[in-house]
Amino acid sequence: EYDGDRNPEGERHGYGKARLPNGDTYEGEYQRGLRSGRGTYRFKSGALYTGSYLQNKKHGKGIFFYPDGSKYAGDWVDDQRQGHGEYMYANGDIYIGEWFDHKRHGQGTYVYKDTGSKYVGRWVNGIQEGPAELIHLNHRFKGRFFNGRPSGRGKYIFDFGCEQHGEYIQLPQEKEEEEEEQASLPVEPKWKVTEITKLTPWTPEESP
């Protein structure tokens, strides 16, 4: 069903309201039969998008409310979260930063609601990777991340005025004959302390 403006060719053009065969509804702007411009799309599932469209795809600035209570507000390109945006997750965690192809990608900050801890750094395809800082209540870790885990040289900075330098070492995985069929869990990297110092200006970007 469609109720709204049309152009001389009879195409939806201008402002209109539509009910789709699957029960979804759209109210907003059309150009030559396609959703283009500002509009609000309500999904039968309970999700809702309000923002910019280009040729039936979410494109530009927009807010998406997901059925689980999470919300994304930011840039869209070709129906994907892309550019800069803020995502509030159902558990209360928040990510603010860059997106590419629907994933966290680039520079961004992730705040963990339960602990108040904060990851500030690089992301690659939704995974923490590159120089970063992990900030806790009374101390923080500065170093590099690889595949979502700290890796290589880094330091812990404590609020009472000292630092613990060291590196994260990936331990070799122990294999048992009978368990080779099962998918093995990744081994947590182990922190090896090299020295404790007063506060220094060292940052992970200076590492080779």
TrEMBL record:
One of its GO terms (biological process) is meiotic cell cycle. Transmembrane segments: none annotated. Residues 1-14 have a biased composition (Basic and acidic residues). GO terms for cellular component: motile cilium; nucleus. It holds the Pfam family MORN. Gene3D superfamilies: Histone H3 K4-specific methyltransferase SET7/9 N-terminal domain (2.20.110.10). InterPro entries: MORN. Residues 1-27 are annotated as: Disordered. Keywords: Cell projection, Cilium, Cytoplasm, Cytoskeleton, Flagellum, Meiosis, Repeat. It is found in: Cytoplasm, Cytoskeleton, Flagellum axoneme. Functions as part of axonemal radial spoke complexes that play an important part in the motility of sperm and cilia. This is Radial spoke head 1 homolog. Its main location: cytoplasm.
